[in-house]
Protein 1
Amino acid sequence: MRKTLPLILAAMTFAGPAAAHISADPGKAATGAYQVTLFRGCHGCGKAATTGLRIELPPELASARPQPKPGWSLKLERDGDRVVAIAWTGELPDEQFDDFAILAKLPAAPGPLYFPAVQTCGSEQQQWTGIPDPGETGLSHPAPVLMVTPADPAAETHHH
């Protein structure tokens, strides 16, 4: 065990920035639901604090509303009446993580919804915008994804 511990620590050290990313939680939700999705930032860019997060919204969403964060400013980018992106600006130290919440009305059709994200750390950016081709895996900077699954007809429907 003593010989393997340094190897484990070395592997964790060299995992690099691409090993962690902006993720969507939960990873799946039912068609037609009003769903709160948390976009989790788990580190800065290198050792710099995260100073901004911009999430692009898939056109399939019927509506989307961000949750404000104390100490952060919030900007909605629109195309007509539709919100196409949400951006938070503030400061999140590199050694901390946080969640950025969006409430959205999910589409009636199942399938993946990709939310390309740009994480800003001062003058640097990390582009979490990779959308895989069918069957492709292992992208170095994947966009957060929410898998929309068929609704369970036996489940009770709630409206918000």
Protein 2
Amino acid sequence: MIGVLIVTHGNFSEAIIKSMELVFGHQKKVEALTLNYGDDVRDLLVKVKEKSKELDDGDGVMVLVDLLGGSPCNVAASCLRDENIQCVTGLNLPMLISVLEERHNVALSQLPEAALENGKSGIVNLKQFIG
């Protein structure tokens, strides 16, 4: 099973997992890492590498981060060459749920496309959508 690691600024990663569980139920092999004010980015890099190894049972790890170009993103980017990892930025709840649904059906290399597609499709102007 593909592991899922969520790395964000502040407690967003922990909170989105709790929100996901309200909708989708508890999921195995899903972990959160946070970067808070004053934290050392080098420590986050060590944690991402450790968690990625813990979550990877041979199928790889999908890392979801909140902000393109932010420290969590940059840390994940530095792991992409050496690890069995994919990463998508712009984390939202539809993206996370789709990754958790699809990780049983596709290879790690295909999972980013599902994340992107479902993350984007969950963003709508509601007035236009229902009007």
